[in-house]
UniProtKB/TrEMBL annotation:
Coiled coil start-end: none
Residue ranges crossing the lipid bilayer per the database entry: 7-25, 45-68
Provenance organism: Citrifermentans bemidjiense (strain ATCC BAA-1014 / DSM 16622 / JCM 12645 / Bem) (Geobacter bemidjiensis)
One Pfam match: DUF2905
Protein name, per record: DUF2905 domain-containing protein
Cross-referenced InterPro entries: DUF2905
Keywords, in A-Z order: Membrane, Transmembrane, Transmembrane helix
Length: 70
């Protein structure tokens, strides 16, 4: 079982990475508009679900966490 200190460091790095993603998201206009993202617009209704973007972010975070566990 990892120590509390190591867990807090990893949590801090994840929070910093998410913060950096939000800070620099405007520089990546394709982020959130990938093929596979679901976008439905009707007269008074808009539904948007970034499916492909969510999968890409999940894969990247899984890779990063896997590298930290090695």
């Amino acid at each position: 079982m990892p120590s509390l200190g190591k867990s807090l460091i990893i949590l801090g790095l994840v929070i910093a990475a998410v913060g950096a993603l939000f800070t620099f998201a405007g520089r990546f206009p394709w982020l959130g508009r990938l093929p596979g993202d679901i976008y439905v617009k009707k007269e008074n209704f808009t539904f948007y679900f970034p499916l492909a973007t969510s999968i890409i972010i999940s894969l990247l975070l899984s890779l990063i966490l896997w590298l930290f566990r090695r």
